Model the fold of this input.
Amino acid sequence: MTDIKPPYLSRAFLRWFCTAELVEEIEGDLMEEFVDNSERMGRLKARWLYNWTVIRSLRPYLIKSSENKRRTNPIDMFKNYIKIALRNLIKQRNYTLTNIFGLSTGIVSVFLILIFIDNETSYDKHHEDFHNIYRVATSMNINDDNLALASSPPGLAQAMAVDFPEIETATRLSIFVQVSKNLLQYQDRQFFETQGFLADSSYFRIFNFEFIHGDRTSALNGPQKVVLSSALSSKLFANEDPIGKLISITNNHGKSDYEITGVYDENKHSSHVSPAFICSMNSGVVGRFIYASNELAGNNFLYTYIKLREGSSPDALEEKLPAFLDKHIGEQLKSFGATKSHHLQNVADIHLTSDLTGETGINGSVEYIYILLSIAVFILVIACINFMNMATAQSAKRAKEIGVRKVFGAYRSSLIYQFLGEAVVITFLSILISVVAIHLLLPYFNVLVERNLVVSLTNNLNYLLLIIGLGIITSLLAGSYPAIFLSSQKIVNIIKGRQQRTGGGLFIRKGLVIFQFIIAITLIIGVVTVRNQIHYVQNKSLGFQKENRLVIPLQSAEGIGQYQTLRNQVSAIAGVKSVAGVSYYPGEWVLSDNLYFKEGSGPDETVRIQRNNIDFGFMETLGVEVVKGRAFSEEIPSDVGGAAVLNETAVKNLGYDINDVVGRKIFAVSDTAMVGLQIVGVIRDFNFMSLHAQIDPYMFIIQPNRVYPYIMAELETNDYPGLVDQLESQWEATLPNLPFEYFFLDSNLNKLYDDDRNFGQIIESFTFVAIIICALGLFGLSAYTTEQRLKEIAVRKVLGASVGGILFLLNRSFSALIFIAFIVAAPLGYYAMDQWLNNFQFRIGNTIPILLLSGLVALIFTLMIVSIQSMRGATRNPATILRSE
Amino acid sequence: MKGTYLGEFEEIVLLTVGVLVGEAYGLTVKYEAESRTGRRINLSAIHSALYRLERKGYLRSEKGEATQKRGGKRKKYFFVTNNGIAALTEVKNIRASLWASFPAISRESQQ
Done:
């Protein structure tokens, strides 16, 4: 008969709903009936009847009532929980403060990082239909030499708009070519601005920036109009409405007047382009050139944006582009031996994912976001682990309370609620402190990440919800383990005062400490690696001298016209060793390349070489090393316009033998008369751009007009301020209308690594925070373990153990934890930092010493903290400890 | 007299418990009541009535033995209390007095 089983589900259901006093006889009667029925009417019908009876039994008198809960008084108990929680928190002040400090630091860090990430991901998402707006990027390949450009040629926008009906609007944005600074003048006020652009009239119709003054859609209609950023507007006009006023813009192409038609608010929304001013395209030398040009192959220096009609696919358009290029410029490209392709980048993706040559500004990176996000999570986790560890460690003190509560009939669930409640109290105290701290720290954080983030709780409900959400998550994370652990202890053990030294609790506690150290050591590895790499790039020999090199920009056509005069004046000053003019200086990115081929080949086999037009003496002033042939010489007239000095990469790419290259010629593709340039020398490869980039083919030439936008001087003096004063007075005598500007080459080159340094600083700051929290936790935990072992220590001392021996004993277990953590963290940190270092073409090689160093730092640091506590235990008089039994 | 009122089904269950002297638990009550009335009764209805009667004080119960057939669960035996007998007697008397006044004509016209 035992094989007859009633329907399992129904029985389980009955047991679940039926009150405990009656379930036995009800279930028994049902079973007995079921057995009888099975014999009489068959199993199937019996089962059906059983189910039916169970359902019929679902009557109020049988259902497990809420009597259990009714018996405890929830409100009174709740009051009691709060009272006990507050008493405990006040009684154990150090513990409470540690927890609150740790948690608020964690919350502040996470919050700041989250609002930063929120801002980073918001770039260019404010434009109407931003998902339909694309930038057309260019990829050129000339004889295996790849060039991935953010920019494109001037004719592209128009040609694409004509050929593809799915394009609603196309617009172009351009820099002022070969101008790094524009001088803006209004009456007696004048400022240099770097972020100057030219744009088609449709620009502001595609991109929705908020205009403070003027009309967005028509601002760039017609020639000689300009829209200013609000910052520039307030610099030039304070709070006045500048609409209709005329300003003059001066650069090395000349000076012309512009009418102000708009002021836009650049702080309202983030965009990958941040112009100080935008002129209408049909103005100035460069603008009119672009306006008139329908070039599709070369002159890839401006930015083309298209807006697709709703519903049309960017992929489909991209697939049509090769045929489009083939139709328009196929023949032309073939004659250079070049291939070219265009692809579309959604405007909202540019800031985080695009890293092409000639971007409009410094872009962020997705990896950066991931790294920051993981650091944020790490910090919060470390703080939560502290909380959990301290709470469980404190459980010995709370054990009696738990025991008494259990004896008086506390359910496990109510104990869990109680401890979770205490976590909530601590978390919400931390949140209050965090809110204040966020407001105080935000300005410093903005400096750190170079952003202008604003937090306002009253205006932005999201931030409030974010903080409360963080609070709830933190409470649950931090409170759950102690709540479950503490409530699970057996009453008998607690009341008898037997310490629960179960392996489980100890194991988890150790596991959590190891986890903390894995994070800490990984972060330390990161910090040390970034520091080393930045030190490396700033001190690596670049192949030229960067110290004591002063650069003076000549700024405008007027200044450039005075080049020879100024050069002679500067070279006459004592302390100036040498001086020469140059088109652009190391670290400045200017696309100034041309296609060349060697003797015996043709225009279909070309090499792209970056050119720099220099004056006699520049190579000496910069201190580049000539490995073959000679530098330019004023004694040889043919050097002007007819000679070139190449770098080693250029020689190699051209296909010349370095020992047989001097005296040979190279020909530009445009040089149809085949006059060519004679190679007079070869210089050692040097890093003209940042060490992120590889070394490109490069050459120096001297163009016949011999005018240059920059003067570079090598200084040899101990009195830099005095020398600069002399330079300034010379400048004022020659060019009284222009402000004097200068910079040192080395500090300017260091700016190339601003981003990396910034990255390093952010990681360093948050690593510092993480380590502080780690240290706090360790401090608390070691205090606890020492206290637990006080009796043992006393007995050991009585039996003759030395202080040193006891210190060793207490520190040993923590060292083992560090060691385990190091074994996990080392490969982790190694891998992560190797990925980062691969961003550099020139990077530090062996990072093993960094790993070992980081491990050692963590070990010493831990031993120091643990020793503070264990010293206190080890030096106490055993008599006082043992007497208190 | 709210709470002591005896329903028809309750009366049957109470009587059945009395009939089964010492052998009355859920299932035997069900079987006995079914055979006496010729109705199909669901066990849950029997239980419900038994516990209601117990609460009213007409029945008392005792835990009994467990059997293999019951899946090792103990029985609960019910006994009629003095209150129960009083209630039954009262119902019976009310009926008897009603029957006594029932006119013969009315009986015939029904047939």
Q: What stands out?
A: The interface with chain B takes residues 1-2, 22, 24-33, 35-36, 52-54, 56-57, 59, 61-62 of chain A (CB under 8 Å). The radius of gyration of chain A is 38 Å. The CA atoms of residues 14 and 54 of chain A lie 6 Å apart. The longest helix of chain A spans residues 412-449.
